[in-house]
C-alpha cells in the first residue's frame, strides 16, 4: 500500500534552514532550550528528524549556531547623521534588548557560543554609527564592544530576575536599562 501525503503535508512549505530555525526557536521559546531535540524538532516540522540533517549536516551544533545567528543578528541601525547618532544607538539598544528578551531561551547561547559573524557584524554596524557622530575610530571600537556587552549583560540579568543591587523592592528594568544606556552614550563621545 502506497502512503498518500496528507493534505497538510501537500500545503506545507518545503523544508529550509529558515523554517528549521523558526521551528527550533518556537520550541526554545515555548519549552526551553533543554527541550530542543532533533526528534522534537522533526515532529514540529512534520518530517523525520534525519531530514533536518540534509540542511544542517553538523546537526544540533549547526542548529544552535543558527539560533544564535538569528537572535543575535544586529537589528538595523538607522542612518541618522550628526547629533542623531546617539538616538540611533539608543533605538538600536532598546530594539536589541527587546529581541534578546523575546528569545530568552537562546540568550545563554548568545553569551557562551562562539558565533563571531553575528556579533562582529553588530560591532561593525555600531562603530559605523559612532563614526558618523565623529567618534574617533579607536574610541568607537571600544564603545561598540561596551554597548554590545551592556545590552547582552543587562538582558541576562533581567532573565535571571535578580535585584543584583540587593534591594528588597521590585526592579524597574526599563528605567535601569535606560539609565545605564544614558551613561554609556554620554561617555561615548
Automatic annotation (TrEMBL):
Domain HTH tetR-type: 20-65
InterPro entries cross-referenced by the UniProt entry: Homeodomain-like_sf, HTH-type_TetR-like_transc_reg, HTH_TetR, Repressor_TetR_C, Tet_transcr_reg_TetR-rel_C_sf
Residues of the Tetracycline repressor TetR C-terminal domain: 82-166
GO biological process terms, semicolon-separated: negative regulation of DNA-templated transcription
Signal peptide: none
MF terms (GO), sorted A to Z: DNA-binding transcription factor activity; transcription cis-regulatory region binding
Protein name: TetR family transcriptional regulator
Source species of the chain: Actinomadura litoris
Top-level taxonomy: Bacteria, Bacillati, Actinomycetota, Actinomycetes, Streptosporangiales
Amino acid at each position: 500500500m502506497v502512503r498518500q501525503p496528507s493534505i497538510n503535508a501537500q500545503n506545507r512549505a518545503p523544508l529550509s534552514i529558515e523554517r528549521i530555525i523558526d521551528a527550533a526557536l518556537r520550541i526554545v521559546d515555548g519549552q526551553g532550550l533543554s527541550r530542543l531535540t532533533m526528534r522534537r524538532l522533526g515532529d514540529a516540522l512534520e518530517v523525520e528528524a534525519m531530514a533536518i540533517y540534509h540542511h544542517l549536516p553538523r546537526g544540533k551544533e549547526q542548529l544552535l549556531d543558527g539560533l544564535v545567528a538569528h537572535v543575535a543578528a544586529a537589528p538595523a541601525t538607522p542612518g541618522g547623521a550628526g547629533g542623531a547618532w546617539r538616538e540611533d544607538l539608543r533605538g538600536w539598544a532598546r530594539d536589541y534588548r527587546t529581541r534578546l528578551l523575546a528569545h530568552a531561551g537562546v540568550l545563554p547561547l548568545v553569551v557562551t557560543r562562539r558565533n563571531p559573524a553575528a556579533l562582529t557584524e553588530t560591532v561593525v554596524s555600531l562603530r559605523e554609527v559612532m563614526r558618523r557622530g565623529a567618534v574617533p575610530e579607536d574610541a568607537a571600537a571600544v564603545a561598540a564592544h561596551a554597548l554590545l556587552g551592556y545590552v547582552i549583560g543587562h538582558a541576562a540579568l533581567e532573565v535571571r530576575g535578580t535585584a543584583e543591587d540587593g534591594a528588597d523592592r521590585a526592579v524597574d528594568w526599563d528605567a535601569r536599562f535606560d539609565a545605564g544606556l544614558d551613561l554609556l552614550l554620554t561617555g561615548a563621545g
